[in-house]
Amino acid sequence: MSVPGSHYDQGAGLYPSDPKGVDSVSLRDLIVIAAARFPLMLAVAAAVLVIGAGYVLTRSTVYRADTTIIVEPQTSGLLAAESAARGRAETEMMMRNQVEILQSRPVLQRVAEELSLVKEGGDMDEMIDRLQRRTRIRFQEGSGVITIIARTPNAELSANIANELADAYLAVQSEYRQSLEQSTSEQLAVRVAELAEDVREAEEALNTFQVENDLTDVAGNQSLTGLQLADLNRELAAARSSLTAATAKVNQARQLRQSGASLETLSDVLASPLISQLRQRQTDLNREAAQLRERLGPNHPDVIEMAAEQRELRSSINQQIGRFIQQLQNDVDVAQARVSTLEEQLAGIQGTFEEQSEKRIQLRELERNVQTRQEIYLATLSRLGQSAPGNDGLAPDARILSAAVPPTAPASTSKLVLLAFMIPFGLAAGYGVALAIEILTGSGFRSDMAISRHLGVPVLATVPSLRELNKNRETAVLVMSRRVIDNPRSPHSAAIRDVAALLKRPTDGNRRVVAITSTLPSEGATALSLSAGRALAEDGRKTVLVDADVLHPTVPRPSELKHEGPSLGDYLEGKAALPSITIKDLASPLHIIANLREVMIDAATAAEGVAALMEKLAGEYDNVIVKAPPLLSGRRTGPIYKAADDILLSVRWELTPRDAIVSALHHLGEDRAKLEGVVLFDVDERRHEVYTHGLLTRGILPKGFLGRAS
């Protein structure tokens, strides 16, 4: 496809910032993908169908038989406590263990022997392996139900294997429990004897400790020291009370004496019989003395004698009161001595009691030790009794719920149904593979219309792919460029000649300088430059091809040329003249200027030197084709693009990333370069036609159904 007309206007700011709409996927796109990858889909579907058919046709008919058993925990006997103590996790673990037993080789060997599955001279291990493949064991979580599934080509054999496997499992379990019970009983008998001796030793240690520390209890679980301590506390309290009362009486008497008051008012004095008699006698004498004084006068001898008797009586009373007060003081001393004695006794008993309290803590530990050993002994003795013959601890904990019966119909799906299912499955797999490849390889554009619509850049030509391009790069470039000469009528050569026709159009007089570049290496720019140059030279145009990528030259030198002279690098360094670096292409009249050695020159200087060379060559050749470095190579190449009349951008069909193309267009815009358009390179013609025109050209869908595909 060629697009004549003016240059694409880079200076007007028309480069897109992002290819719009290229990431959207519609039903139309999915259908177009199926059409574009239809051969691949058919190949994958055919492969799936062949593999599936081979599997289905070689697959034998299978009959399935199921036997259901239930595993119940022990409800009595030796293992009753263990079964009752199992939690949910332990129950599930127990069920998994039963499944492992059912799948074990000893159990399967019993099945093989009971059913005589191994013929004379046969291999038992091989038969066990076969049974493991033919049987499946399943259990329902949260229950004790186990299902044994047998699948064989024979209905009766499937039922026999499932039933015999259940019987073998029950037999193995019963034998195991009997052996376990016997071993456990023997161990328990030894353990009971050991525990009885432990109990005896613990009781002896308890009794010895009690006697040695005088910890024997009396009535009410109270020790003798405790009773003595209580009695002393009561006596001490009474003695202290008596001391307090006596001390109070003495203090009262002392206070009365110090104040000069009569001590006769004391209650204890008043209560004394002797003092009461003396006071009564004093009262009588006082009355008689008064009568006598009144009758005889104060100086009468009888009156005087009576006064002396009164004085003597008062003295007796005072003496008695003094002796009473002394008796009170004696009572205080006696009470104080009693209190001191009791306190000393109490301190001694208290120390003994505290020492015994510490001993009693040890005594309680010894008592708990005895009690614990007795409980362990009794529990072990009880378990020993439960393991005795005749108990139900030996009863199996599993039983058969339903036995297998020979199935009347095969369990496998019909072969015709499977084959019919393979067709849509194969097509779906093929489409999945096609879609995956489409996604993995879909970073670029697949149609020229998509480039024009999303980037606004015209597509000048689409160059079909060649199988030879799968070889190494230099060989592929030479093969492609030779195709223009050797087979000028091929679609590939026709596309190259379309590009050459565009390059013939003059821009200034009869001369034209065109730069051919790409976004990244290996995008077809080198092959396109060499092929177009040879096509122009064959048409009689004086053409020269300049490999402007001085640092990384890509234009291959034809193997038949043995050029030993200077090259472009020498010219740029000023060491050679222009005629000496021009190589004559032996396959065509094309002239080639390339760098054949490593040069010590930076990219910017090289670009300016190549730009000057382009101006000079424009005066000597009809067409100057410059193979420029990739736009995203990171090197400064602006002078080359400014010196060119037009620029062609080579884009690898389907593979050149879209964002890379956008970045390359921005680079050209910054250099104010004159982009002629894009050449789609290495195009799959059939798929390109589908992507560009949908399915209309194939007549599969009515016109207008899909519209234009991107």
Notable traits:
710 residues; alpha/beta; eight-stranded mixed sheet; four-stranded antiparallel sheet; disordered N terminus; disordered C terminus
Q: Any overview of this molecule?
A:
The protein has 710 residues and is an alpha/beta fold. It has helices spanning 27-36, 38-58, 80-84, 88-102, 105-114, 124-134, 155-212, 224-259, 267-271, 273-296, 301-386, 415-440, 448-455, 473-486, 491-504, 525-538, 568-572, 578-581, 603-618, 638-643, 658-670, 685-693, and strands spanning 63-71, 135-139, 145-152, 398-402, 459-464, 512-518, 543-547, 583-584, 591-593, 623-627, 646-652, 675-683. The strands form 2 sheets. Strands 5-12-11-6-10-7-9-8 form an 8-stranded mixed beta sheet, sandwiched between helices. Strands 2-3-1-4 form a 4-stranded antiparallel beta sheet.
Nearest-integer average pLDDT: 75
> In angstroms, what separates the terminal alpha carbons?
17 Å
> How many separate helices?
22
Low-confidence stretches: 1-23, 75-86, 389-396, 695-710
Which percent bin holds the helix content?
55-70%
For the secondary structure, the number of strands is 12
The 3D shape can be described as elongated
Quick structural gist:
The protein is α/β, with parallel strands linked by helices. It contains 22 helices and twelve strands. The strands form two sheets. The chain has an eight-stranded mixed β-sheet, with helices on both faces. A four-stranded antiparallel β-sheet has the order 2-3-1-4.
